[in-house]
Protein backbone atom coordinates (compact mmCIF):
# COMPACT_ATOMS: atom_id res chain seq x y z
CA UNK A 1 0.00 0.00 0.00
CA UNK A 2 1.30 3.43 -0.92
CA UNK A 3 1.44 5.35 2.31
CA UNK A 4 2.84 8.34 0.52
CA UNK A 5 -0.70 8.97 -0.67
CA UNK A 6 -1.58 10.03 2.80
CA UNK A 7 1.03 12.69 3.06
CA UNK A 8 2.68 11.07 6.06
CA UNK A 9 5.53 8.76 6.53
CA UNK A 10 5.01 6.05 9.06
CA UNK A 11 7.27 6.58 11.98
CA UNK A 12 9.02 9.41 10.21
CA UNK A 13 10.59 10.69 13.41
CA UNK A 14 14.34 10.08 13.20
CA UNK A 15 14.27 8.78 16.76
CA UNK A 16 11.69 6.28 15.77
CA UNK A 17 9.16 7.60 18.26
CA UNK A 18 5.49 6.92 17.59
CA UNK A 19 4.05 10.05 19.05
CA UNK A 20 3.29 11.75 15.75
CA UNK A 21 -0.12 10.12 15.55
CA UNK A 22 -2.21 11.03 18.52
CA UNK A 23 -5.74 9.91 17.79
CA UNK A 24 -7.48 7.44 15.53
CA UNK A 25 -11.15 6.55 15.13
CA UNK A 26 -13.00 4.10 12.90
CA UNK A 27 -16.40 3.79 11.29
CA UNK A 28 -16.90 0.22 10.09
CA UNK A 29 -19.91 0.26 7.81
CA UNK A 30 -21.76 -2.27 5.70
CA UNK A 31 -19.58 -1.49 2.66
CA UNK A 32 -16.64 0.67 3.70
CA UNK A 33 -14.38 1.19 6.68
CA UNK A 34 -13.60 4.82 7.26
CA UNK A 35 -10.57 5.77 9.33
CA UNK A 36 -9.53 9.21 10.58
CA UNK A 37 -6.52 10.15 12.62
CA UNK A 38 -4.70 13.24 13.76
CA UNK A 39 -0.96 13.54 13.38
CA UNK A 40 1.18 16.25 14.85
CA UNK A 41 3.60 17.98 12.51
CA UNK A 42 6.46 18.03 14.99
CA UNK A 43 7.26 18.79 18.62
CA UNK A 44 8.23 22.38 17.90
CA UNK A 45 4.69 23.20 16.85
CA UNK A 46 3.41 22.85 20.40
CA UNK A 47 2.54 26.17 22.01
CA UNK A 48 1.16 26.79 25.46
CA UNK A 49 -1.92 28.93 25.84
CA UNK A 50 -3.20 30.18 29.14
CA UNK A 51 -6.86 29.93 28.46
CA UNK A 52 -9.39 28.85 25.98
CA UNK A 53 -8.52 30.42 22.70
CA UNK A 54 -11.59 32.14 21.33
CA UNK A 55 -15.29 32.69 21.62
CA UNK A 56 -15.79 30.40 18.71
CA UNK A 57 -14.88 27.41 20.80
CA UNK A 58 -16.16 24.29 19.23
CA UNK A 59 -15.68 22.18 22.29
CA UNK A 60 -15.91 24.51 25.20
CA UNK A 61 -14.39 23.51 28.49
CA UNK A 62 -15.45 24.93 31.81
CA UNK A 63 -12.13 24.54 33.52
CA UNK A 64 -9.15 26.81 33.13
CA UNK A 65 -6.34 24.43 32.42
CA UNK A 66 -3.42 25.31 30.27
CA UNK A 67 -4.04 24.40 26.68
CA UNK A 68 -1.52 23.38 24.12
CA UNK A 69 -1.86 24.33 20.52
CA UNK A 70 -0.85 21.42 18.35
CA UNK A 71 -0.40 21.85 14.68
CA UNK A 72 -0.95 18.86 12.55
CA UNK A 73 -3.27 17.21 10.10
CA UNK A 74 -6.42 15.20 10.05
CA UNK A 75 -5.97 12.24 7.74
CA UNK A 76 -8.73 10.31 6.05
CA UNK A 77 -8.59 6.81 4.62
CA UNK A 78 -11.11 4.22 3.54
CA UNK A 79 -11.12 0.49 2.85
CA UNK A 80 -13.69 -1.99 1.67
CA UNK A 81 -15.20 -3.75 4.66
CA UNK A 82 -14.93 -7.03 2.78
CA UNK A 83 -11.16 -6.45 2.68
CA UNK A 84 -10.82 -5.67 6.36
CA UNK A 85 -7.34 -7.19 6.38
CA UNK A 86 -6.11 -4.25 4.27
CA UNK A 87 -7.32 -1.95 7.01
CA UNK A 88 -5.66 -4.00 9.75
CA UNK A 89 -2.42 -4.03 7.79
CA UNK A 90 -2.59 -0.29 7.22
CA UNK A 91 -3.11 0.36 10.92
CA UNK A 92 -0.23 -1.92 11.77
CA UNK A 93 2.18 -0.48 9.17
CA UNK A 94 1.47 3.04 10.36
CA UNK A 95 1.50 1.96 14.00
CA UNK A 96 -1.84 3.68 14.45
CA UNK A 97 -2.90 1.07 16.96
CA UNK A 98 -0.59 2.68 19.50
CA UNK A 99 -2.50 5.94 19.19
CA UNK A 100 -5.47 5.04 21.36
CA UNK A 101 -5.71 5.50 25.08
CA UNK A 102 -5.47 3.14 28.01
CA UNK A 103 -8.24 1.86 30.24
CA UNK A 104 -9.13 4.34 32.91
CA UNK A 105 -8.40 3.31 36.48
CA UNK A 106 -7.07 -0.08 35.49
CA UNK A 107 -3.28 -0.05 35.31
CA UNK A 108 -3.25 -3.82 34.83
CA UNK A 109 -5.06 -3.50 31.54
CA UNK A 110 -2.64 -2.06 29.02
CA UNK A 111 -4.80 -2.65 25.95
CA UNK A 112 -5.30 0.42 23.76
CA UNK A 113 -8.83 1.68 23.32
CA UNK A 114 -9.82 2.95 19.90
CA UNK A 115 -13.13 4.68 19.34
CA UNK A 116 -15.18 2.91 16.70
CA UNK A 117 -18.69 3.13 15.32
CA UNK A 118 -20.84 1.41 12.67
CA UNK A 119 -22.11 -2.14 12.70
CA UNK A 120 -18.59 -3.48 12.20
CA UNK A 121 -17.49 -2.10 15.56
CA UNK A 122 -19.73 -4.83 17.01
CA UNK A 123 -19.03 -7.45 14.38
CA UNK A 124 -15.25 -7.18 14.21
CA UNK A 125 -14.34 -6.31 17.81
CA UNK A 126 -12.74 -9.70 18.40
CA UNK A 127 -10.74 -9.52 15.18
CA UNK A 128 -9.18 -6.19 16.16
CA UNK A 129 -8.34 -7.55 19.59
CA UNK A 130 -6.80 -10.68 18.15
CA UNK A 131 -4.82 -9.09 15.29
CA UNK A 132 -3.81 -5.74 16.78
CA UNK A 133 -4.40 -6.15 20.49
CA UNK A 134 -6.75 -3.19 20.64
CA UNK A 135 -10.22 -2.82 22.15
CA UNK A 136 -12.80 -1.08 20.02
CA UNK A 137 -14.78 1.27 22.23
CA UNK A 138 -18.19 1.25 20.55
CA UNK A 139 -20.02 4.48 19.92
CA UNK A 140 -23.56 4.56 18.59
CA UNK A 141 -23.71 5.10 14.83
CA UNK A 142 -26.45 7.76 14.86
CA UNK A 143 -24.74 9.68 17.69
CA UNK A 144 -21.55 9.70 15.64
CA UNK A 145 -23.20 10.75 12.38
CA UNK A 146 -24.76 13.74 14.09
CA UNK A 147 -21.63 14.63 16.08
CA UNK A 148 -19.54 14.36 12.91
CA UNK A 149 -21.92 16.52 10.87
CA UNK A 150 -22.12 19.20 13.57
CA UNK A 151 -18.35 19.13 13.98
CA UNK A 152 -17.75 19.63 10.26
CA UNK A 153 -20.42 22.28 9.85
CA UNK A 154 -19.00 24.32 12.69
CA UNK A 155 -15.30 23.69 12.27
CA UNK A 156 -14.45 23.40 8.63
CA UNK A 157 -14.41 26.39 6.38
CA UNK A 158 -16.50 25.84 3.24
CA UNK A 159 -17.73 22.41 4.26
CA UNK A 160 -21.30 22.60 2.95
CA UNK A 161 -22.40 23.57 -0.52
CA UNK A 162 -25.35 23.56 -2.87
CA UNK A 163 -25.05 22.04 -6.30
CA UNK A 164 -27.37 23.62 -8.82
CA UNK A 165 -27.06 23.50 -12.61
CA UNK A 166 -23.51 22.28 -12.30
CA UNK A 167 -22.52 25.13 -10.01
CA UNK A 168 -21.16 24.57 -6.53
CA UNK A 169 -21.89 27.33 -4.05
CA UNK A 170 -20.47 27.18 -0.55
CA UNK A 171 -22.69 27.96 2.37
CA UNK A 172 -21.68 30.32 5.14
CA UNK A 173 -22.86 28.59 8.29
CA UNK A 174 -24.24 30.79 11.03
CA UNK A 175 -23.54 28.79 14.20
CA UNK A 176 -26.58 30.35 15.85
CA UNK A 177 -28.83 29.39 13.01
CA UNK A 178 -27.75 25.87 12.18
CA UNK A 179 -30.62 23.90 13.72
CA UNK A 180 -32.94 22.28 12.97
CA UNK A 181 -31.88 20.42 9.85
CA UNK A 182 -32.39 17.03 8.26
CA UNK A 183 -29.32 14.85 7.93
CA UNK A 184 -29.58 12.18 5.27
CA UNK A 185 -26.75 9.68 5.37
CA UNK A 186 -26.57 7.60 2.21
CA UNK A 187 -24.35 4.65 3.00
CA UNK A 188 -25.23 1.05 2.17
CA UNK A 189 -28.71 1.95 3.43
CA UNK A 190 -30.09 5.40 4.20
CA UNK A 191 -30.79 7.04 7.56
CA UNK A 192 -32.73 10.27 7.91
CA UNK A 193 -32.13 12.18 11.10
CA UNK A 194 -33.77 15.36 12.35
CA UNK A 195 -31.03 17.30 14.13
CA UNK A 196 -32.03 19.88 16.71
CA UNK A 197 -28.72 20.57 18.40
CA UNK A 198 -25.52 19.04 19.74
CA UNK A 199 -26.47 15.46 20.65
CA UNK A 200 -30.11 16.41 20.16
CA UNK A 201 -31.64 14.42 17.36
CA UNK A 202 -34.17 11.82 16.28
CA UNK A 203 -33.84 9.27 13.48
CA UNK A 204 -37.11 9.95 11.72
CA UNK A 205 -36.87 7.64 8.76
CA UNK A 206 -34.70 5.51 6.54
CA UNK A 207 -34.79 3.52 3.36
CA UNK A 208 -33.19 0.28 2.30
CA UNK A 209 -32.79 1.61 -1.23
CA UNK A 210 -29.39 3.26 -0.92
CA UNK A 211 -25.76 3.12 -1.95
CA UNK A 212 -25.60 -0.65 -1.51
CA UNK A 213 -28.56 -0.99 -3.87
CA UNK A 214 -26.88 1.10 -6.55
CA UNK A 215 -23.59 -0.74 -6.28
CA UNK A 216 -25.16 -4.20 -5.85
CA UNK A 217 -27.66 -3.95 -8.70
CA UNK A 218 -25.18 -2.08 -10.86
CA UNK A 219 -22.55 -4.76 -10.42
CA UNK A 220 -25.02 -7.47 -11.41
CA UNK A 221 -26.41 -5.59 -14.38
CA UNK A 222 -23.20 -4.16 -15.85
CA UNK A 223 -20.46 -6.54 -14.69
CA UNK A 224 -18.47 -3.53 -13.45
CA UNK A 225 -15.67 -4.54 -11.13
CA UNK A 226 -15.51 -1.41 -8.99
CA UNK A 227 -17.87 1.22 -7.72
CA UNK A 228 -15.85 3.97 -9.37
CA UNK A 229 -16.06 2.17 -12.71
CA UNK A 230 -19.84 2.02 -12.39
CA UNK A 231 -20.00 5.70 -11.50
CA UNK A 232 -17.68 6.60 -14.36
CA UNK A 233 -19.86 4.68 -16.80
CA UNK A 234 -22.89 6.74 -15.83
CA UNK A 235 -21.17 9.84 -17.26
CA UNK A 236 -21.48 8.51 -20.78
CA UNK A 237 -24.92 6.96 -20.46
CA UNK A 238 -28.35 8.04 -21.61
CA UNK A 239 -31.13 7.08 -19.22
CA UNK A 240 -33.84 7.72 -21.81
CA UNK A 241 -32.89 4.51 -23.57
CA UNK A 242 -34.27 2.54 -20.61
CA UNK A 243 -36.47 4.89 -18.62
CA UNK A 244 -40.07 5.39 -19.73
CA UNK A 245 -40.73 9.12 -20.01
CA UNK A 246 -44.03 10.96 -19.73
CA UNK A 247 -43.61 11.77 -23.43
CA UNK A 248 -43.32 8.06 -24.26
CA UNK A 249 -46.75 7.54 -22.73
CA UNK A 250 -48.37 10.80 -23.90
CA UNK A 251 -47.24 10.69 -27.55
CA UNK A 252 -44.42 13.18 -27.08
CA UNK A 253 -46.55 15.69 -25.18
CA UNK A 254 -46.31 17.13 -21.67
CA UNK A 255 -48.97 16.18 -19.15
CA UNK A 256 -49.23 19.85 -18.34
CA UNK A 257 -52.39 19.63 -16.25
CA UNK A 258 -50.50 17.91 -13.45
CA UNK A 259 -47.21 19.69 -14.09
CA UNK A 260 -45.30 16.92 -15.82
CA UNK A 261 -43.10 17.70 -18.79
CA UNK A 262 -42.70 15.17 -21.57
CA UNK A 263 -39.09 14.65 -20.42
CA UNK A 264 -40.01 13.66 -16.86
CA UNK A 265 -39.28 10.04 -16.03
CA UNK A 266 -42.64 8.34 -15.67
CA UNK A 267 -41.17 4.94 -14.85
CA UNK A 268 -37.54 4.12 -14.19
CA UNK A 269 -36.44 1.15 -16.34
CA UNK A 270 -39.99 1.12 -17.76
CA UNK A 271 -38.90 0.92 -21.40
CA UNK A 272 -37.32 -2.45 -20.77
CA UNK A 273 -40.83 -3.94 -20.57
CA UNK A 274 -41.71 -3.32 -24.18
CA UNK A 275 -38.40 -3.06 -26.00
CA UNK A 276 -38.19 -6.78 -26.47
CA UNK A 277 -34.51 -6.62 -25.64
CA UNK A 278 -32.29 -8.68 -23.38
CA UNK A 279 -29.89 -7.29 -20.81
CA UNK A 280 -26.98 -7.66 -23.24
CA UNK A 281 -28.78 -5.39 -25.72
CA UNK A 282 -28.52 -2.43 -23.37
CA UNK A 283 -25.31 -0.48 -22.94
CA UNK A 284 -23.86 -0.72 -19.43
CA UNK A 285 -23.46 3.07 -19.39
CA UNK A 286 -27.21 3.57 -19.99
CA UNK A 287 -28.05 1.08 -17.25
CA UNK A 288 -25.69 2.78 -14.84
CA UNK A 289 -27.17 6.19 -15.56
CA UNK A 290 -30.77 5.01 -15.14
CA UNK A 291 -29.93 3.25 -11.93
CA UNK A 292 -28.07 6.21 -10.47
CA UNK A 293 -30.88 8.54 -11.43
CA UNK A 294 -33.56 6.22 -10.01
CA UNK A 295 -31.89 5.83 -6.64
CA UNK A 296 -30.77 9.45 -6.26
CA UNK A 297 -34.21 10.72 -7.25
CA UNK A 298 -35.95 8.37 -4.85
CA UNK A 299 -33.73 9.38 -1.94
CA UNK A 300 -34.22 13.05 -2.82
CA UNK A 301 -37.97 12.60 -2.78
CA UNK A 302 -38.13 10.66 0.50
CA UNK A 303 -35.82 13.22 2.07
CA UNK A 304 -38.06 16.04 0.99
CA UNK A 305 -41.13 14.25 2.41
CA UNK A 306 -39.40 13.89 5.75
CA UNK A 307 -38.27 17.51 5.70
CA UNK A 308 -41.87 18.44 5.01
CA UNK A 309 -43.10 16.37 7.98
CA UNK A 310 -41.06 18.51 10.33
CA UNK A 311 -40.98 21.82 8.47
CA UNK A 312 -37.24 21.58 7.79
CA UNK A 313 -35.77 23.74 5.06
CA UNK A 314 -32.23 22.44 4.96
CA UNK A 315 -31.29 18.89 4.07
CA UNK A 316 -27.64 17.91 4.42
CA UNK A 317 -26.64 14.80 2.49
CA UNK A 318 -23.72 12.66 3.63
CA UNK A 319 -22.46 9.14 3.05
CA UNK A 320 -20.08 7.70 0.52
CA UNK A 321 -22.75 7.03 -2.09
CA UNK A 322 -22.54 10.68 -3.14
CA UNK A 323 -18.80 10.70 -3.80
CA UNK A 324 -18.97 14.35 -4.87
CA UNK A 325 -20.44 13.03 -8.10
CA UNK A 326 -22.03 15.72 -10.26
CA UNK A 327 -24.93 13.69 -11.64
CA UNK A 328 -25.83 12.27 -8.23
CA UNK A 329 -25.83 15.68 -6.56
CA UNK A 330 -27.67 17.25 -9.45
CA UNK A 331 -30.41 14.60 -9.37
CA UNK A 332 -30.87 14.92 -5.60
CA UNK A 333 -30.93 18.74 -5.82
CA UNK A 334 -33.47 18.70 -8.63
CA UNK A 335 -35.68 16.23 -6.75
CA UNK A 336 -35.64 18.30 -3.54
CA UNK A 337 -36.23 21.50 -5.47
CA UNK A 338 -39.00 20.01 -7.62
CA UNK A 339 -40.97 18.40 -4.81
CA UNK A 340 -40.58 21.28 -2.36
CA UNK A 341 -41.36 23.84 -5.08
CA UNK A 342 -38.10 25.56 -4.21
CA UNK A 343 -38.83 25.72 -0.46
CA UNK A 344 -36.18 23.23 0.69
CA UNK A 345 -32.49 23.05 -0.20
CA UNK A 346 -30.23 20.07 -0.74
CA UNK A 347 -26.80 20.65 0.76
CA UNK A 348 -23.75 18.48 0.34
CA UNK A 349 -20.72 18.02 2.55
CA UNK A 350 -17.14 17.93 1.41
CA UNK A 351 -16.27 15.20 3.90
CA UNK A 352 -19.52 13.40 3.16
CA UNK A 353 -18.26 9.87 3.89
CA UNK A 354 -16.48 10.59 7.15
CA UNK A 355 -19.29 11.85 9.39
CA UNK A 356 -19.40 8.71 11.54
CA UNK A 357 -15.64 8.41 11.86
CA UNK A 358 -15.26 12.07 12.82
CA UNK A 359 -18.09 11.68 15.31
CA UNK A 360 -16.27 8.76 16.89
CA UNK A 361 -13.12 10.85 16.92
CA UNK A 362 -14.66 13.74 18.82
CA UNK A 363 -16.24 11.30 21.26
CA UNK A 364 -12.83 10.76 22.88
CA UNK A 365 -13.42 14.01 24.66
CA UNK A 366 -16.95 13.18 25.70
CA UNK A 367 -15.63 10.22 27.63
CA UNK A 368 -12.90 12.17 29.35
CA UNK A 369 -9.76 10.58 28.06
CA UNK A 370 -7.70 13.44 29.41
CA UNK A 371 -4.52 12.72 27.59
CA UNK A 372 -6.26 12.75 24.25
CA UNK A 373 -8.71 15.53 24.73
CA UNK A 374 -9.26 17.68 21.71
CA UNK A 375 -10.53 20.91 23.15
CA UNK A 376 -11.07 22.91 20.14
CA UNK A 377 -10.29 23.11 16.52
CA UNK A 378 -8.87 26.54 16.10
CA UNK A 379 -11.25 28.97 14.57
CA UNK A 380 -10.29 28.86 10.95
CA UNK A 381 -10.12 32.01 9.02
CA UNK A 382 -9.25 32.16 5.37
CA UNK A 383 -7.93 28.97 4.02
CA UNK A 384 -4.26 29.77 3.65
CA UNK A 385 -4.17 31.87 6.75
CA UNK A 386 -2.09 32.30 9.82
CA UNK A 387 -1.59 29.86 12.66
CA UNK A 388 -4.61 27.82 13.24
CA UNK A 389 -6.00 28.31 9.79
CA UNK A 390 -7.28 25.38 7.86
CA UNK A 391 -5.70 24.31 4.69
CA UNK A 392 -7.24 21.68 2.52
CA UNK A 393 -4.59 19.83 0.62
CA UNK A 394 -4.91 18.85 -2.96
CA UNK A 395 -8.08 20.01 -4.52
CA UNK A 396 -8.67 23.47 -5.86
CA UNK A 397 -12.39 23.01 -6.31
CA UNK A 398 -13.27 21.95 -2.80
CA UNK A 399 -13.57 18.24 -3.47
CA UNK A 400 -11.94 15.88 -1.02
CA UNK A 401 -10.00 13.37 -3.03
CA UNK A 402 -9.34 9.94 -1.59
CA UNK A 403 -6.87 9.80 1.22
CA UNK A 404 -6.32 13.50 1.65
CA UNK A 405 -5.71 15.39 4.82
CA UNK A 406 -6.77 18.65 6.42
CA UNK A 407 -4.04 20.71 7.98
CA UNK A 408 -5.22 22.24 11.18
CA UNK A 409 -4.47 23.07 14.73
CA UNK A 410 -6.16 21.67 17.78
CA UNK A 411 -6.12 22.65 21.40
CA UNK A 412 -5.45 19.89 23.86
CA UNK A 413 -5.29 20.04 27.61
N1 LIG B 1 -14.83 2.49 -3.34
C1 LIG B 1 -16.08 2.14 -3.06
N2 LIG B 1 -16.42 0.84 -2.90
C2 LIG B 1 -17.68 0.49 -2.62
N3 LIG B 1 -18.69 1.37 -2.48
C3 LIG B 1 -18.43 2.67 -2.62
C4 LIG B 1 -17.11 3.12 -2.90
N4 LIG B 1 -17.14 4.45 -2.96
C5 LIG B 1 -18.41 4.82 -2.73
N5 LIG B 1 -19.20 3.76 -2.54
C6 LIG B 1 -20.65 3.86 -2.27
O1 LIG B 1 -20.77 4.19 -0.93
C7 LIG B 1 -21.63 3.29 -0.25
C8 LIG B 1 -21.13 3.09 1.15
O2 LIG B 1 -21.17 4.31 1.79
P1 LIG B 1 -20.75 4.48 3.31
O3 LIG B 1 -21.16 5.85 3.73
O4 LIG B 1 -19.31 4.15 3.47
O5 LIG B 1 -21.68 3.41 4.00
P2 LIG B 1 -21.41 2.18 4.95
O6 LIG B 1 -21.17 2.81 6.28
O7 LIG B 1 -22.68 1.42 4.90
O8 LIG B 1 -20.24 1.41 4.44
C9 LIG B 1 -21.61 2.06 -1.10
O9 LIG B 1 -22.80 1.31 -0.92
C10 LIG B 1 -21.48 2.61 -2.49
O10 LIG B 1 -22.72 3.03 -2.99
C1 LIG C 1 -28.74 -0.10 9.28
C2 LIG C 1 -27.99 1.17 8.89
C3 LIG C 1 -28.16 2.22 9.97
C4 LIG C 1 -26.48 0.80 8.79
O1 LIG C 1 -25.72 1.91 8.35
P1 LIG C 1 -24.79 1.84 7.02
O2 LIG C 1 -23.75 0.77 7.26
O3 LIG C 1 -25.67 1.52 5.84
O4 LIG C 1 -24.16 3.19 6.89
C5 LIG C 1 -28.47 1.70 7.51
O5 LIG C 1 -28.15 0.78 6.52
C6 LIG C 1 -29.95 2.06 7.43
O6 LIG C 1 -30.38 2.99 8.02
N1 LIG C 1 -30.72 1.32 6.59
C7 LIG C 1 -32.11 1.59 6.31
C8 LIG C 1 -32.98 0.74 7.17
C9 LIG C 1 -34.41 1.24 7.12
O7 LIG C 1 -34.72 2.25 7.77
O8 LIG C 1 -35.22 0.66 6.42
In brief:
With 413 residues, the chain is α+β, with helices and mostly antiparallel strands. It has helices at residues 84-93, 119-123, 125-132, 141-155, 211-222, 227-236, 246-249, 284-310, 326-340, 355-366; strands spanning 21-28, 32-40, 47-49, 67-80, 101-102, 112-117, 134-138, 160-164, 167-170, 181-186, 190-197, 200-207, 244-245, 265-267, 314-318, 345-349, 374-377, 391-392, 405-412. The protein contains 10 helices and 19 strands.
**What's the number of domains?**
3
Could you name the ranges where pLDDT drops below 50 across 5 or more consecutive residues?
A: 1-19, 50-65, 370-376, 378-398
Q: For the CA atoms, what is the radius of gyration? A: 23 Å
How many β strands by DSSP?
19
Quote the CATH topology of the largest domain.
Nucleotidyltransferase, domain 5
Question: What percentage of residues falls in helices of 4 or more residues?
Answer: 25-40%
Inertia-based shape = globular
Order of helices and strands: EEEEHEEHHEHEEEEEHHEHEHEHEHEEE
CATH homologous superfamily caption of the largest domain:
ATPase, nucleotide binding domain
Characterize the main sheet. Answer: 10 strands, mixed
Amino acid sequence: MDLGNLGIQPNSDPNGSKDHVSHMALDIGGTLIKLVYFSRNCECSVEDKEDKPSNDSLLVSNDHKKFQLLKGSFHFAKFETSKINDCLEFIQCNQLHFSGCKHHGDPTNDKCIIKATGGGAHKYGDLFKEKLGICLDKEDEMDCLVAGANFLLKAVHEEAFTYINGQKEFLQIDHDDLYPYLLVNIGSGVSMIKVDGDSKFERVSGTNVGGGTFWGLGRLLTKCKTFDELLELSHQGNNRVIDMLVGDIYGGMDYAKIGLSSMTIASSFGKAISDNKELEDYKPEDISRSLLRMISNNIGQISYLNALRFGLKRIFFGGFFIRGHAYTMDTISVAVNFWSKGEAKALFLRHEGFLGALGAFVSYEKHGFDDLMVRQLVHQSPVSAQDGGYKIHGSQNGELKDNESIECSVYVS
